[in-house]
Design brief:
This protein is mainly alpha-helical. It folds into two domains: 37 residues; 54 residues, Arc Repressor Mutant, subunit A, CATH 1.10.10. The protein has four helices and three strands, in the order ααβααββ. Strands 1-3-2 form a three-stranded antiparallel β-sheet. A hairpin with a 2-residue loop joins strand 2 and strand 3. The protein is rod-shaped, with a radius of gyration of 30 Å.
């Protein structure tokens, strides 16, 4: 049969755990309110320093791709990606847009300047 001191200690620990569970719930709700209603799952994205948005150049990569294809007609995506040091998936997207605009033509796996 359990001793009275052990029973009391067990009840005290269980009561404290219940209090901590309630407090955790309150803190999580408060945190969600601070984050705009979303639960926090990990560290937020690091900022860029001064908080200014990054300036994007208009058409920088597409101009480079066009110039490279003009200099090397029949170039393939791996060739172009290696030359410009960019990843092929991005290049496929860019070349698709250039082909839609009629700037380049695709024949098989090769790209040529539009005539």
């Amino acid at each position: 049969m359990p001793r009275t001191a052990e029973v009391m200690a067990r009840q005290l620990i269980e009561r404290r755990l219940a209090e901590l569970d309630e407090e955790r719930g309150r803190l999580e709700r408060a945190l969600a309110g601070l984050d705009g209603g979303t639960e926090r799952r990990g560290p937020s994205r690091p900022t860029r320093g001064r908080g200014r948005p990054r300036r994007r150049r208009k058409g920088g990569r597409s101009a480079q791709v066009q110039k490279l294809i003009a200099a090397n007609p029949g170039a393939t995506v791996p060739d172009i990606a290696k030359s410009l040091r960019i990843k092929p998936p991005y290049l496929y997207t860019l070349l698709g847009k250039l082909a839609k605009e009629g700037v380049v033509q695709k024949k098989g796996r090769q790209y040529f300047p539009a005539a």
